[in-house]
Amino acid sequence: MNTEAKKDDIIQAVDERDEMLRSISQRIHAHPEVSFHEHQAQGWLTEPLIAAGFSVEKGISGLPTSFRATWEGTPGGPTIALLAEYDALPGIGHACGHNLIGTAAVGAALSLKASCPDLPGKIVVLGTPAEEEGGGKIIMCEDGVFDQIDAVMMCHPQNKTMVLRGALACVDATFTFHGKQAHASSAPEKGISALDALVNAYVSINSLRQFMKDDVRIHGIITKGGDAPNVVPELAEAVFILRAANVNELEEVRHKVYRAVRAAAEGTGATVDISEGLIYAERNNNEKLAELFADNLQRMGIEVNDPPQKGGVGSSDIGNVSQVTAAIHPYIRLGNANTHTPEFATLAGSEEGMIELNRAAKALALTTYDLCSNPEALKQVRHEFEAWKAQKDGGTSHT
Questions:
Q1: Given its phi and psi angles, is residue 211 left (phi above 0), alpha (psi -120 to 50 degrees) or beta?
Q2: How many CA atoms lie within 13 A of 13 on its CB side?
Q3: Which fold has domain 169-276?
Q4: Chain mean pLDDT for the chain
Q5: How far is CA 252 from CA 170, 198, 211, 350, in A?
Q6: How far apart are CA 315 and CA 280, in angstroms?
Q7: Which residues fall within 8 angstroms of residue 306, CB to CB, at 6 or more apart?
Q8: pLDDT in tens, 279-291
Q9: What is the CATH number of domain 3-167+283-392?
């Protein structure tokens, strides 16, 4: 059977599973679970994989809500990973559409096994918790989960279809200021206001913005400001996210911000503890792999747009994966709303969301088929990654 006919079979296999995929996605959407607590979503996504004969391991890399589902067709082919995200945002649920991302990865894998039983390769669905807050993929990278994988893909809903959109390096930082309690009216001189230290730090951080590069992003909230207005606050806390073009530039941003925070604490007589989350690396998009994905989108009649030339990007822990192996993080259009808004959360559970889910599963499955059935395409993808890695490592590749 020729390639085009086989691709038609793959598309049909996704359509045959459309009702099941819709059901899984809508259940996850209706029961949002935040980072590291995605127990129901893990179960709903792995059930059909187990039923289809995938070998499923839950709780890999010390993450209880992670999973790895593996199926091998004909031995000797490449190992391709499809990434499933399924954590929600606090307060606004699936406003980033992870109910669609996770289900699309599962749908692609199920459809490939059904339509291409002799596929030369190994398909791995990796359930990666806590993309929004915590960096599950980073933990899995550090555990070596991606070391023997030839290429990695996932597909994200967005208000524009793109295959080469970048992402910033980022880190979240918590600033906990410690002062001294006192009566705010009768004995204020005996107190040290942790809140004043925090406010001064907030102002200092804002004053740095004009001295940062245009692509740097710094944003934060005050999570604790005291307990009563007539008591000098002994504890105040803020959480910030710092972003820059890459990890090296992020280091400079961190240095400047943390210096300002420490100075604000010292200036009021308070002290401050600074704690960081894991560092999300910038995204290294594999252009050859993105080209294959774009060709399959266009085959389905989906127009592919250029990414923004400036701004318009966030961060994701797939950036860390892209430092380890060939990876892409394409987007398929879902309405006009921006992600991380209530409007996008509504779209992710709507009919429009289910259509995007179907398209994403097809594009992932078709591109995986290309990698497994076309050795030359795989060779080009791997060559591009190896060349990038060698340059990054100063001439030595360790992959």
A1: alpha
A2: 25
A3: Alpha-Beta Plaits (3.30.70)
A4: 96
A5: 12, 21, 12, 42
A6: 7
A7: 162, 164
A8: 999 999 999 999 9
A9: 3.40.630.10
